[in-house]
Amino acid sequence: MNLQREGCPANESPPPPISIRQVREIDYSNDRHDPPALSLDDRGMIQDCSKSFERLFGFQRPELVWRHISRLFPQLEHIELVQAGQLNPLLNYLCHCGHLYQVLNQQGDIFLSHLSFVRIEFNGKRYLRLILHPSETVRA
After folding, report:
1. Is residue 19 part of a domain?
2. Considering the entire predicted model, what is its pTM?
3. How far apart are the C-alpha atoms of 110 and 132, rounded to whole Å?
């Protein structure tokens, strides 16, 4: 099996970060291209991020872990993500209605994105998975 991309020598440096426009063109069925996503605890502290999130927004995982979600999503600063063990009903409603949220990349640029929250239980622990769907209108 040949793992090299056509026209990409083995000693070539890794590709530059992808742009938000390019996210729409990615085939997420390939494990290498997971959707831009974050794993959060109930308090909104980032536990993990996908590789595509790192590439898209210019962060490395260690820069995000144990930071509050409001570092990236200022509109979520005073929002309780979880209420009575469930996703905040108003937040859930807004996400399903297509509300656009501001997202800050590492350089401080603001982008607009739709958000989806998924509640996950694993090994007796509860997490939130935040999946981003960058808007066609890429900058605020």
Report:
1. no
2. 0.73
3. 14
